Structure prediction request, 187 residues.
Amino acid sequence: MNKVLPLFLCGLYLLCTPTSSFAVSPDIIGELKTIDNNITVNISVINVTELDNVIKSGIEKEIVFTVELIRVWKFWPDEFIVSKKINNIVKYDNLRDQYWGSSFDGVTLTEKKFNDFSSMKDWIFNVRSVNLANAKGLEPANYYIRIVVESRSIEQLPIMGLLTHLVPEVDMTMAKESQHFFVGEIK
Prediction:
């Protein structure tokens, strides 16, 4: 009887304790469009709840979106064609009770201030109209899009300065690939 009770309590604890497997994991939603022969991609990241408290605490976060166009080859490794990188940075100002965000796509820098968390989150985790390539300049073949989203802390805590080689640079990494699609004219 003495051995059965601890096993029963341990099993009951495991059944009643919520686990992270029930939590909703972050996901990438990508939408591919061809407008005037330009291949454009819209990206959204949903269910990123683990970053909410970190951003609200005032730690500056960088969200890096990398969009790659890749050509499919049979019996050969796939060929990298082009890539675009968008860096979004967000920081919470405790004194003013507002969020500051910036977005840089390699050409254009956009800065914005937000008074509420949900509008900032919608802006920082959505990237619209990333122009990858003109379809006329591509050889006829099957292609796919790979999207990689990384989150990293820009500021390092003072105590972490001693342990930087033990702490990973990237907090969160997600990747998703699209279905294959054909570009070009069928001869």
In short: The helical segments are 4-16, 52-56, 117-124. The radius of gyration is 22 Å.
